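The pair is listed for reference:
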Amino acid sequence: MHAKTQDTPETRPVPAPKRADEGWIQRRYLDLLGSIYIYNEHRGYTAIERVLDAVRARAPDDAALIAAIEQHRADEEKHYHMFRRWFERRGIMPFAVDRTCGHIDRFVEIMFGRTIDALDTQAVIDSDDLFEKLCRVISLTERRGMQQVKILLAHPIVRRDPILMRIFRIIERDEPSHWAPYDGWLKAHGRRNDRWWERMIDRYIHGELLALKLPILFCNPWLARRRDWAHAGDGARG
C-alpha cells in the first residue's frame, strides 16, 4: 500500500526555508527530534512488513487482520517519507541515531531477549503465546506514540515549525488505528491485555530516552549525520 497523496505535506517542490532565524538550541532540538522519529518510522514499517508476511502465510483467510496490519504498515511508511521531505526542505540529513533510540527496538530486546533483526518472526507468528506478547508490545508502543504526539503538538519549539506541526497532526489522526488490530487479535483469541509490569517497561524505555539518551545526543558535538536515506536499502531486505 502507498501513502495517500492528500496526506503528504508539501508534495510539490518548494525552496528550502531559511534556518538562520532558528536559534542553535531550537535547530538542534528539531533536528534530533526529526532524526529519532524518522528512525522509528522506518524501523516500524520494515518490522511490520515481516510480521505481515508471516500473518499472510499463517492466516491467509483472515482478511480483516491482514488489511489492518497493511494499513498500519502503509501509515508508518507514509510518516517516514513526510519526515524525509521535512529534512530535505531543511537542506540537511538526519542524525545517524541507531536502535538505542528505537522504542520498539528496546521493547523487543527486553521482552524477547534479542534484537528485532535477530527475532525469528515466523516462530513468533507460529506460537500463540509469543504472538500474544508481540501484540502487547506493538500496542503499547503505538499508544506511547500517541501520547508523545499530543505532547509535541503543544511544545513551544515544535509549534514554531508549521510543516512539522502538520506532520504531527497527520500522525495524531492515523495513530489510533495502529494498535487496533493487535488489541483485536488479543480479544478475539481470549488473550490477556498488558499488565502493570509491561506498562512499567514502556515507561522506563520512554524515560530513558528523554532523561538520558536525548541529552547525551544533544550535547555530543561529534554526532554524525546519515549519508543516505534509510529507505535506500529497503529493496535489498530479505
